Amino acid sequence: MAAAVAAAEKPSSSSKGQAWFCTTGLPSDIVIEVDDMTFHLHKFPLMSKSLKLHQLITEQETNGSSTVPPQTTEEIRENGDGDVDGDEIEEIQCYITLTEFPGGSETFETVAKFCYGVKIDVNSGNVAPLRCAGEFLDMTEEYSEDNLISKTERFLSQSVLKSLRDSIKALKSCEKLMPLAETLGITQRCVDSIASRASSADPALFGWPVNDGAAANEARSSTSKQQILWNGIDPGGRRKGAARGNNAELWFEDMVLLSLPFFKRLIFAMKATDLSPDIIESCLMYYAKKYIPGISRSNRKPSSSSASSTTASESEQRELLETIISNLPLEKSSRSPTATRFLFGLLRTANILNASEACRAALEKKIGSQLEKATLDDLLIPSYSYLNETLYDVDCVERILSNFLDGLEQRNQAGIHGEDEENGVRSPALMLVGKLIDGYLSEIASDANLKPERFYNLAISLPDQARLFDDGLYRAVDVYLKAHPWISEAEREKICGVMDYQKLTLEACTHAAQNERLPLRAVVQVLFFEQLQLRHAIAGTLLAAETAPLESARPSVLLRRELDEEAEEEEADVDVEENEHAGVSVSAPRADYSSTWRTAVRENQVLRFDMDSMRTRVHQLERECSTMKKVIDKIEKSGPPGNGGWRGSLTKRFGCKFKTQVCDSHESTVVDTRKGRHHHHQQ
């Protein structure tokens, strides 16, 4: 009993090489080996807290033999550093080896301190190993009051599981404690806590962008030196919100330290609790950017410090990639284009790693649901297969576009945005995709290996409502004809058939009229519709001039003014007579009748002048149209003369110079004159 009291007074410890000593002034009487570390301890403190150690020590004392021969002072000096206190050395009576101890020697050192009554520091990183160690050593409340199991369970439930980050750290520590941690339910409780805490978190935390590695580190180091700016605006009162955003980023940083099996388990739990798709998507994005190199174009070269620790093998990257893609929410992301750019990065990586067809198909469908948020740079996916002759993967873009159109049709059938289209309002998403595809066609048109059939099929895949004007499509056709001068005349006419000439602006028409690369039939149609555009423009100008302030020179307006002046003079005379003969009420009906008659005569005269002037303008336009038809007929009969002679004759006849400017197909500078397309889209 005296030895026990002395051992419990003020114990201290020291480590010498691979040996750990408890310096209490009493010689140690037991050695416990855990992994490569030996602990020179005393029996009584251990036996008072651990039922298992009590049984092992009692068993050895009963048998009267230890596991290893007693060590002398000289042997310990040879194994240690040679500088050992005399009161710590004696012939060892008991030697115990604990194999597969939860948490290893570091955890057992904490357990030994607890047995000696030393105050230990329990935190989110060691509570799970200590809980498993207590279970391993049978340190229950029934055996000893306020024992290790009850202490760790209380800290786990009252502190760790009530914090999001602490729960993640505890779950991370369970990776080396399996399967005991699973048997004790620690892993499941941590997973459930993370899922519930994430679902109750402020959604504003996840509206902040997921930073790329180098940029994130730089941003973190600079926030302490300068004010936090968001989109170039000083948030001022939103600094508290910025702090919450940093906390969310720390949340993600803790989460990405989990192993893939634990991360998959956590994502499954999040999806089971109906967590916001944006939060799940943010978790997947952060985890993928951590372990899949090159997924972001701005972070293609990871830092040397993190490359060796985070870069996984090709098979591990493929497994991780398929896990990320299979768990992506099917809903359209409400985030900025950052999410769409990330999805395209996943698609490029899936092509490089040769992921499964089902994996790539699911990713293409996800991208198709939000294609309007993509950029031209996103669509330029290199072709990694030797079967594709083109520089870019055109087939992949066709599949993504098909998924977008299918989703748009499903939404229209479900009544979403359907009323707008019935009222003639174009879908904004469809218009954005139309402009995006026109830009993509212009970019890939210069590829010499792009077949006319593939260019044609992609160009006609969009409905008529996707393009307000066909100027962008004309630009792509012009680039393709310039890069493929060897194609036949039939193929050139087929390529030009993707355009609706009535949807070309005047600028595009003037450029096409002098474009030597276009077939003659296409040029003739351009000229014809250009004249229609001019007629509409002239008519609109004349109608606008009638209501403008400068229209005062028209005869009808002058006549109206003269009649108004005469009427005002007559009304003034009537007023004078009424003033001279005040009180005579008989003149009032006669004045009203006279005024009504004069107004009717005046309006008839104005209408007659307007009809005469309109008839004159109509005759002039008809003569111009007749002259234009004769010229077109003459061109068709004579055929295409060499050296551009017929183009010069048109320039001389109509007295105009063609410009080479092509405007944007989505600028609303000209009124759309036709709602449907009448040319054929079939081969």
CATH superfamily placement of the domain at 18-63 and 92-162: Potassium Channel Kv1.1, Chain A
CATH topology of the domain at 18-63 and 92-162: Potassium Channel Kv1.1, Chain A
CATH structural class of the domain at 18-63 and 92-162 = Alpha Beta
- Rg on CA atoms, Å: 43 Å
Number of strands: 5
Percent in strands: under 5%
Coiled coil: 604-638
Family: Belongs to the NPH3 family.
Biased composition (Polar residues): 60-73
InterPro entries: BTB/POZ_dom, NPH3/RPT2-like, NPH3_dom, SKP1/BTB/POZ_sf
Mind explaining what this structure looks like?
The chain is mainly alpha-helical. It has a domain at 18-63 and 92-162: Potassium Channel Kv1.1, Chain A (2-Layer Sandwich). The chain has 30 helices and five strands. The protein has a five-stranded mixed sheet, covered by helices on one side. A hairpin with a 2-residue loop joins strand 1 (12-16) and strand 2 (19-23). Helix 14 (277-291) packs antiparallel against helix 16 (314-326) and helix 26 (506-513) runs antiparallel to helix 27 (520-547). The N and C termini lie far apart (102 Å). 30% of the residues are buried. The model is unreliable at 1-10, 67-91, 202-245, 302-309, 580-589 and 650-683 (pLDDT under 50).
